Amino acid sequence: MLQRKINRGVSPPLFDRIVDDKNEWLGNQLLDAQQLKDSIVEELSIILNTRCTVRKVIYQDHIQTIPMFGFPDFFGLEDLSNFDGSNPGEWPAAALSIETAIQAAEPRLRDIRVRVESYSHVEQTLFIQVSAFIEESHLLQEIHFPLALQHRPQSSHRGEHKAVA
Fold first, then answer.
1. Sheet of 139-150: strands edge to edge?
2. Which option is the CATH number for 14-150: 3.30.565.10, 3.30.1360.70, 3.10.450.40, 3.30.70.2740?
C-alpha cells in the first residue's frame, strides 16, 4: 500500500514562491512557523518603507478600497498633511494609520496592534512595535516584532530592505 507523505507548513507569498533573494526558483517549498514570521516581517518592512504618492486626506479615504501599498511620509512633505515623526503627540495617530496600512496589505495577520516606541532624529527613523496574530491555514500564533520606518527612500529591489525582527 502506498503511503502519502504529509507536508507541514504554509505556502510563502507569491513572489517568494517564484524567486528568493538569490533569484533561485523555490518551487513548492513550504514555510515553517519561523519562516512565516520572517516573511511577514520582511513584507511589512518593505510595504511600510515604501512611500505613498497621495496626500494624507486622499489616503485615509481610500486605504480600504484601492491597493495603495506604502505609508504616507512622516517627515516634511510640503503640504504638511502628514505626520511629524519627531512629535510624540502625533504618535497615536501614526500608530493607527500604520495599523490600517498593515490590515490592508497583510491578510495573514489579524488583531493588529501598533505602538510607536521612539524616533531617531539622526537616522530620521520611527521605531514601532507590532503585535498581531498570524492566521494561516492551521497555524494561529501570536507574534510581536519591531520595525523601523525610515524617512529616506528605500531601494525598490526586493531583499535589500532590512527588517528588525
1. 109-120, 125-136, 139-150
2. 3.10.450.40
Q: Which three cell numbers stand for residue 119?
A: 524616533
| Domain regions of the chain by residue span | 14-150
Contact by Cβ (8 Å): 149, 99: no
Rounded to 5°, the CA angle 82-150-72 comes to 25
Residues sharing a CB contact under 8 Å with residue 86, sequence separation 6 or more, in sequence order: 75, 119, 121
The residue type of 143 is I
Three-state secondary structure call for residue 116: strand
This model's pTM is above 0.85? no
Over residues 19-43, the pLDDT tens digits come to 555 555 455 567 777 888 888 888 8
